[in-house]
């Protein structure tokens, strides 16, 4: 900050007034910059966070953000209590203003599907930090299991620790690989013959082709459930459609959750 000597005669308080005026302009600029940075950061986090974080990890190895998330959850959640792990994660997202698409109403819809379907085997594509893996795992009956796929090794490691923290390691297996590599191995390597629920939560352009791949390996039987988002026409009513996989046609009941969420039961 610079102080300018006034080139006019006058009592000392004029000098003080001039300094205060300059302070206000600096303060105003600083506040405007802070507000602008916060707005841009909030926008980028909300709109591009899920895309940018994996990209940054690819370029820089790791952003360490996932480590911070894990440390936070480990510090605040009760070990062995999946609900406490989920609640801690939810609270963190709220304070960081990070939208977690699979919490709230959508999370309840996922819970409802698990409770209604009582699956023996679930397959999740897109584990990320393991929030939904814990969410699904905590509702599985004894002997039931979830296989969850995450190609990003840093995220898969965090998810594995989240699952352990929740005490669900006997029910949830985090597989560090791409769906392409794992689906053909499901029977041989993971002893999967039927999948009751497929939860698609990764890149949307892969949904149909990976579903087809699962089907080609004979893992989808009548009555399987697909949980995913942003596939419907936004109509908030149950309706039946034909889903043509190319190899086979399924009659599906769509159960929309809100304007852009839909689960499919075939
Ligand atoms: C939206 S996040 C999953 C969020 C998670 N289901 C939850 O709500 O807790 C999508 C994840 O899919 C992973 N992913 C990307 N391509 C994949 C693939 N081919 N197979 C499996 N997972 C993939 C990404 O690394 C990312 O962590």
UniProtKB/TrEMBL annotation:
Keywords, sorted A to Z: Catecholamine metabolism, Membrane, Methyltransferase, Neurotransmitter degradation, S-adenosyl-L-methionine, Transferase, Transmembrane, Transmembrane helix
PANTHER family recorded: CATECHOL O-METHYLTRANSFERASE 1-RELATED
What is the name of the protein in this document?
Answer: catechol O-methyltransferase
Q: Name one GO molecular function term.
A: catechol O-methyltransferase activity
Question: What SUPFAM superfamilies does this protein map onto?
Answer: S-adenosyl-L-methionine-dependent methyltransferases (SSF53335)
Positions the record marks as coiled coil are none
* Nucleotidyltransferase as UniProt keyword: no
Q: Which InterPro entries did the record assign?
A: SAM-dependent_MTases_sf, SAM_O-MeTrfase
Asked whether the UniProt record includes S-adenosyl-L-methionine among its keywords, one would answer yes
Q: Which CDD domains match?
A: AdoMet_MTases
Under Enzyme Commission nomenclature, its number is 2.1.1.6
Q: Which domain of life is it from?
A: Eukaryota
Organism lineage string: Eukaryota, Metazoa, Chordata, Cephalochordata, Leptocardii
Q: Which family does it belong to?
A: Belongs to the class I-like SAM-binding methyltransferase superfamily. Cation-dependent O-methyltransferase family.
Alphabetical GO biological process terms: catecholamine catabolic process; developmental process; dopamine metabolic process; methylation
For this protein, the record's Pfam families field holds: Methyltransf_3
Q: Which residues cross the membrane?
A: 23-40
